[in-house]
Amino acid sequence: MVKEVERKFLVASPAWRDRVEADIRIRQFYLAAAPGRSVRVRIGDGVSAKLTLKFGSRARERDEFEYSIPLAEAQEMQAFAVGRVIEKTRHHVRHRGYLYEVDVFGGMLAGLVVAELETPEDVPDEMLPDWLGREITGESRFYNASLALGGIPEIAA
């Protein structure tokens, strides 16, 4: 088990694009989701797949279990998805030694760009990149499970 400690931000400008180190196309869907827990399948670049279980309702910290699964089985599981399938491209961007994952959503969520910073330490605001916008850590409507199961946040509409 891993403790997932993350902060989430809306992205305010495209200045991060000049610093992209890598990107991956992601298709993900949920097999189950309830307050404080979710079961997700994520397919990366159409070549690998992972099953992830997350537990906890604290805004910045949750327990996470993640397992590689056969791609063919992941593709079959999509038939059991609840809600919509999320399509996004994840970009890896470094700033002051920290790795940010910038997700650019597609499909019905096009226009939504969210950055995540996973680190157990508190990063002071003055160390955050200028291209970050409002912090949305703890705003459940921006969690991927909520995006799959619920409505589109106003910011993305």
Provide a descriptive summary of the structure in words.
The chain contains two helices and nine strands; from the N terminus they run E-E-E-E-E-H-E-E-E-E-H. The chain has helices at residues 71-77, 144-149; strands at residues 2-11, 20-34, 37-44, 48-55, 61-69, 82-95, 98-105, 113-118, 132-135. The chain has an eight-stranded antiparallel β-barrel. The protein is mainly beta. 8% of the residues lie in helices and 52% in strands. The protein starts with a strand and ends in an 8-residue tail after the last helix. The relative contact order is 0.26.
Short description:
The protein has 157 residues and is mainly β. The protein has helices spanning 71-77, 144-149; strands at 2-11, 20-34, 37-44, 48-55, 61-69, 82-95, 98-105, 113-118, 132-135.
Task: Produce the secondary structure layout.
Layout: E1 2-11, E2 20-34, E3 37-44, E4 48-55, E5 61-69, H1 71-77, E6 82-95, E7 98-105, E8 113-118, E9 132-135, H2 144-149
Antiparallel strand pairs: 1-5, 1-8, 1-9, 2-3, 2-6, 3-4, 4-5, 6-7, 7-8
